[in-house]
Amino acid sequence: MKKKITMQDIADRLNLSKNSVSQALGNKKGVSEKTKLAVFKMADELGYEYKKEIAREVFKNRFAIIASSFALAQKSFFGEIVTHMKQQLFSQQAELAIFAIGEDEAKKGVLPLGLESKEWTGIFLLSHINTAYSSKVIDLGFPTILIDHHEPHLKADAILTQNKDGAFSAVEYLINQNHRKIGFLGDILFSPSYQERYEGYKQALSFYHIPIDETFAITRIKEEQTALYQALDKMSEFPSAWFCVNSGLGFILNTYLQSKGYTIPQDFSILCFDNTEFTMLSNPPLSTMCTDLHSMSQKAIELMNWRLQNPDSELIHISLAPHLIERESVQIYPS
Questions:
Q1: If DSSP codes are grouped into helix, strand and coil, which group holds residue 136?
Q2: What distance in Å separates the CA atoms of residue 250 and residue 242, rounded to the nearest whole number?
Q3: Domain residues of the chain, as ranges?
Q4: What confidence score (pLDDT) does residue 300 get?
Q5: Topology of domain 7-161+295-317, per CATH?
Q6: Which range is least confidently modeled, 17-21, 131-135, 209-213, 283-287?
Q7: In a 3-state reduction of DSSP, which class is residue 70?
Q8: What is the largest CA-CA distance in the chain?
Q9: Is-contact 124 142, C-beta < 8 A?
Q10: For domain 163-290, which architecture applies?
Q11: Where do the H-state alpha helices sit in 68-162?
């Protein structure tokens, strides 16, 4: 049976007295605001149940973060961003409420009741939700920051990854490993990020005067095993290396090739985007282009704070350059 968390557990973790924890949770005057924030933060981390309305009396600002249930399920990527943001906002005496949006809600444009009925200091929109839904959130009128997503019709500040340049660097790396037949894998209509990564892929091939072979590019694919296996089964020839728009597709591709008796990277090299758990679950671990998630979360908060102080300034998009993590899924192609 799971142990019930008590005030004493919080006190032990923070090296406080149980009485101090009790005063903090009750928002009493006997403890500092800093201590109250530390207690509420530890209570959340340990899963201690307390009256959330009391915590709200301590917080100076209230922010909401909205993301699809699919995005929030990716704990090692978007989950990391949310965790870092929550920690940073706690230190600024601010609350972060999380709203997960299901597929049906997104299609029907149904906003969470709590989002519409309460006043927010600002809203963060995390990753891709359909444009109509995101526009509806922006139209609520609160300062809004897009994180890892943008679209021409969404009039909001944004923190992004340099997708095109990152993809260019990824494919250039494969070219420098003597690969000339390089495949692309990803649904470019699912997200502007994937379209940009496709543009970077093509730009790198063009820069090195390598003809683009469209038969090696799978640009419309659902991110699931069955769909990818069927698409790959239809190919008469495979490239010597693959660039995948995310680590999930890289993981499935690696599994498929090994199921056909191939060895990675001796037979084929794989390089993906985003350093999620899939890159390490793969055997061998996948080389990947990685965005600093700590920096992304920090920049999102900094941009929000700037926007609150400059409400009438022009919109700002900040792009973070990803870096390459070399692992065992890529090797030099024999000359």
A1: helix
A2: 8
A3: 7-161+295-317, 163-290
A4: 97
A5: Rossmann fold (3.40.50)
A6: 17-21
A7: helix
A8: 74
A9: no
A10: 3-Layer(aba) Sandwich (3.40)
A11: 69-72, 78-91, 103-108, 113-117, 131-138
